[in-house]
Write a structure and sequence with these properties.
The protein is α+β, with helices and mostly antiparallel strands and about 210 residues long. The protein contains 7 helices and 5 strands.
Length: about 210
């Protein structure tokens, strides 16, 4: 099942369930991610379609990092192999933390990417970015014009210098030069950029 479009399906399903329960639903803007990164659950990893859909839904409906960490723990407990035992015994919690960083197994890179993209979406919501599009070795970040602050852009330009380019207009966006086609480095660079945006957002508030 493709990740693209599935987040929207899960969101709509969640809204319908809440409305049936009489819970007020606050509309959230949809975050779009378009990157050349493999992010799905392989059949070899989870064969059961119902279980696979359940995991997709849990990932899509994660609201924060704690929710996502709980999903990762569930994946590891139900389907994944823990990392090889290190010298000296470790507590179960420490083992799980190491497993989160490595996530499941090198064979399950697509699942790891799926989790990383979910975290990227969470960061996007926190810094008012509505869309990320990868164009060859560049990543383009489209900001929410209704909640846009130019001070953040000024600070990012000072830090990234010639690695980013700001394009103002009705749909302001920043282009980040990635200089790589590696999936790991692409996801890492995008996550770091969003974390820098969040730091600037938080410093603005403080």
């Amino acid at each position: 099942m493709e990740q693209v479009g599935y987040d929207t399906y899960c969101k709509l399903l969640d809204e319908v369930v809440k409305e049936m329960q009489g819970i007020k639903v606050t509309e959230e803007k949809d975050i779009q991610i378009d990157m050349n990164v493999s992010s799905f659950i392989p059949d070899e990893y989870i064969e059961n379609s119902s279980q696979k859909i359940e995991i997709y839904q849990d990932i899509a409906l994660s609201k924060n990092e704690e929710d996502l960490a709980n999903v990762i723990d569930e994946i590891i407990d139900r389907y994944g192999n823990m990392p090889k035992e290190r010298e000296g015994s470790l507590e179960e919690k420490e083992e799980k933390l190491g497993a989160r960083q490595q996530l499941i197994d090198e064979r399950e890179k697509e699942v790891e990417n799926l989790i990383k993209i979910a975290k990227i979406k969470q960061l996007c919501k926190m810094v008012n970015i509505l869309k990320i599009v990868q164009r060859r070795e560049n990543a383009v970040f489209y900001f929410d014009v209704d909640n846009f602050n130019t001070e953040i852009i000024d600070n990012l330009i000072k830090e990234y210098r010639n690695l980013i380019k700001f394009s103002p207009g009705k749909e302001p966006y920043v282009t980040l030069i990635l200089n790589t086609t590696s999936e790991d480095k692409i996801l890492e660079s995008i996550t770091q950029f969003l974390e820098k945006c969040l730091q600037n957002e938080n410093s603005k508030v403080n």
